[in-house]
TrEMBL record:
PROSITE patterns cross-referenced by the UniProt entry: HEMOCYANIN_1, HEMOCYANIN_2
Pfam entry (one): Hemocyanin_N
Keyword Secreted in annotation: yes
Major place of residence: secreted
Family: Belongs to the tyrosinase family.
Domain (Hemocyanin C-terminal) ranges: 408-664
Gene Ontology annotations for the cellular component aspect, listed alphabetically: extracellular region
Protein name (Swiss-Prot/TrEMBL): Tyrosinase copper-binding domain-containing protein
GO-annotated molecular function: catechol oxidase activity; metal ion binding; tyrosinase activity
Domain of life according to the entry: Eukaryota
InterPro entries for the chain: Di-copper_centre_dom_sf (IPR008922), Hemocyanin/hexamerin (IPR013788), Hemocyanin/hexamerin_mid_dom (IPR000896), Hemocyanin_C (IPR005203), Hemocyanin_C_sf (IPR037020), Hemocyanin_N (IPR005204), Hemocyanin_N_sf (IPR036697), Ig_E-set (IPR014756)
Example GO biological process: defense response to fungus
């Protein structure tokens, strides 16, 4: 088996022993020296095999080692696709190791890390190999740069002595309070949020071998996962007294929101460029990116037209209907767009990705200043920028148009005859607390940055940062089953009740802002059933420890199952942001619970145990399995509903219930 440290830098415990042929020309003469430097105090030596055939890496040349790598860039995606194919085709594990080691110093580091992680996630023989969290491999993409300087200093001066302390990552460094959008910086710049986004795109690449790209309902999940990010961001905006997201519908208007990220690129140590407030978007005409605003608008119009028509045309002119089962999936793959899965890239274009590009180059559209793209050009950083939510808000309006043309859900789809949800509550702790009052606060946590700091000392470099946190809570539902034993799916959502003007939201608006909190299967015996569920079990989130698991120095998995727990775990909304922040006075939401009829939900799955890390299945699916819910993602809120207000719908259907739920925010920090 591979040591986890293999995926990171040498940590003083494990070392790879390279054949001389692996050293690049620059280091060949010094191979003894280099080998010695990393071979002190080593416990485990892993000999690396010679390569059966040395790959020709010329295809990657256009993406030099110091260029920024973007998954939205066609040229970069083609290069990544070729590299993923190379990694996937390595004949066995030892050769895959050799190939990875050989490629690592010869390729752009971000490109390497992406393709390597995609291969680890998809090869059959690497299921036991953990993927290092991206925030630990490339910390400079995630944390304020002075932290890294302090961290190196702390690591080299204090070594293993007890005087070494975690360096503090400042919480508030990208803007002042003059900028209203800065109120949401804690959400946009959260390490867990950004690493989730990277890992999602890693699990669902747009290019590469067909069997890697083609996953069950992939296009629909692209729509749904990003739609849920927007719903969460909207709720967070209301908590911070900001208006809902304004979709970026007009690309000729000034972009009001500026953003100056102040983080460093991991490949060239320059800061990511900023964007001044009021920037106009321009046609991009650069060596490796050419895109005009007109082209984007043309694709948008074509896509809007086919939604009205009800079918798309593939490259041979065949009509494929956009029906209620497959339509959203076809549109997702076509709009994102995946060259492997889009029905017709020539006709429907590359709408979402090219939007990222046009926004990310607004500061230097023709490259005259030799500036690279801004944070919107990179999936590790895009969610930091307020414009991300406006661009995805626009993309979401296209999907929403499609959904709005489907019939509203009817009673047969929504109801569950004989099942009634009589009581629901969410409560912190077990007893003695007030039901339906939940709490948020700040927490100070530590993350290990060692893996990302090349040539630093062999000791851990820890950084502490504060992030929003919620007190864990328990749901309790009383459900009466007036029939025989049967199964249902419990669906829990949180919905804002009022809009930015404090006006009650109608169901049609509310459903589009509904946040999925959890979804799980329940067995109902005849009579009264009490269902209990912990907030930490949520099907959308992964715990803090998984976002920031220790894989740096001194990480030794205790047992195979512990290793398995950490595997493939980067995808999932961070548990610490499961709840919106709320307000100091307490912000009231609708807690909505529905038990749907499992006979309409169930999916025939391969009869194998779920991957140990497939816990955030609502957002990330199940590894090597079908999406575990036959209903449309977001059901029942993805389509129009028969009632005007949520209360009316809940009254009409016994298998639904709602209650007011108050989220109380306290401005205090707990140190973990
Ligand atoms: Cu995830 Cu636009 O798709 O960033």
């Amino acid at each position: 088996p591979l040591e986890p440290a293999f995926t990171t830098r040498d940590n003083g415990k494990t070392v790879l022993e390279l054949p001389d042929s692996f050293y690049t020309d620059r280091y060949k003469a010094e191979s003894d020296q280099v080998g010695n430097r990393f071979s002190k105090n080593v416990d485990v030596r892993i000999p690396v095999q010679e390569l059966a055939s040395v790959p020709n890496l010329d295809f990657a040349k256009p993406l030099g080692p110091k260029k920024q790598f973007s998954l939205f860039n066609d040229q970069h995606r083609n290069i990544a696709s070729e590299l993923i194919t190379l990694f996937m085709n390595a004949p066995n594990l030892r050769q895959f190791v050799s190939l990875s080691v050989f490629c690592k110093d010869r390729l752009n580091p971000m490109l390497f890390q992406y393709a390597y992680a995609v291969a680890i996630a998809h090869r059959k023989d690497t299921t036991e190999v953990p993927i290092t969290n991206i925030s630990q491999v490339f910390p400079s993409n995630f944390v304020e740069p002075s932290t890294l300087k302090d961290g190196r200093q702390e690591g080299s001066v204090f070594g293993e002595s007890g005087d070494r302390v975690p360096v503090a990552i400042p919480r508030d460094y990208t803007a002042s309070d003059i900028e209203d959008e800065h109120r949401l910086a804690y959400f946009r710049e959260d390490i867990g949020v950004n690493s989730h986004h990277w890992h999602w795109h890693l699990v669902y690449p747009t290019t590469g071998p067909y069997e890697v790209v083609n996953k069950d309902r992939r296009g629909e999940l692209f729509y749904y996962m990003h739609q849920q990010i927007l719903a969460r961001y909207n709720a967070e905006r209301f908590c911070n007294n900001l208006k809902r997201i304004q979709p970026l519908a007009n690309l000729h208007n000034e972009v009001f929101e500026g953003y100056f990220p102040k983080i460093l690129s991991s490949v060239n140590n320059r800061t990511y460029p900023g964007r001044a407030s009021g920037q106009l978007l321009k046609d991009v005409d650069r060596e490796d990116t050419r895109i005009t605003i007109d082209e984007i608008l043309r694709w948008r119009n074509r896509i809007m037209d086919v939604i009205d028509q009800g079918y798309v045309e593939d490259t041979s002119g065949q009509r494929i209907p956009l029906d209620e089962v497959r339509g959203i999936d076809i549109l997702g793959n076509m709009i994102e767009a995946s060259p492997v899965l889009s029905v017709n890239m020539q006709l429907y274009g590359n709408l979402h990705n090219q939007g990222h590009n046009i926004i990310s180059f607004a500061h230097d559209p023709d490259g005259r200043h030799l500036e690279e793209f801004g944070v919107m050009g990179d999936v590790t950083t895009a969610m930091r920028d307020p414009i991300f939510y406006r661009w995805h808000g626009f993309i979401n309006t296209v999907f929403t148009k499609f959904k709005s043309l489907l019939n509203p859900y009817n009673a047969a789809q929504l109801g569950f005859e004989g099942v009634s949800v009589d009581y629901i509550e969410a409560r912190i702790g077990k007893k003695g607390t007030t039901p339906n009052v939940l709490a948020t606060y700040w927490q100070n946590s530590t993350v290990d940055l060692t893996a990302g700091l090349d040539f630093s000392s062999a000791t851990n470099v820890l950084a502490s940062f504060s992030h929003l946190q919620n007190a864990p809570f328990t749901y309790t539902f009383n459900v009466t089953n007036n029939g025989a034993k049967r199964t249902g799916t419990c669906r829990i959502f949180l919905c804002p009740k009022v809009d930015e003007r404090n006006m009650a939201l109608r169901l049609e608006d509310q459903r589009q802002m509904a946040i999925e909190m959890d979804k799980f299967t329940v067995d109902l015996v005849p009579g009264v059933n009490t269902i209990r569920r912990q907030s930490t079990e949520s099907s959308v989130a992964i715990p803090f420890e998984r976002s920031f698991r220790p894989v740096g120095a001194n990480y030794q998995p205790q047992a195979a199952d512990e290793l398995a727990r950490f595997r493939f775990c980067g995808c999932g909304w961070p548990q610490h942001l499961l709840l919106p922040k709320g307000t100091t006075q307490g912000m009231v939401f609708d807690l909505f619970v529905m038990i749907s009829d499992y006979s309409q939900d169930s999916v025939e799955q391969p009869n194998t145990p779920n991957d140990a890390c497939s816990t955030a299945y609502s957002f990330c699916g199940l590894k090597d399995k079908l999406y575990p819910d036959r209903r449309a993602m977001g059901f029942p809120f993805d389509r129009r509903l028969p009632n005007t207000y949520l209360n009316e719908m809940v009254d009409a259907f016994g298998n639904m219930a709602r209650t007011d739920l108050r989220i109380q925010y306290t401005d205090r920090t707990i140190v973990k």
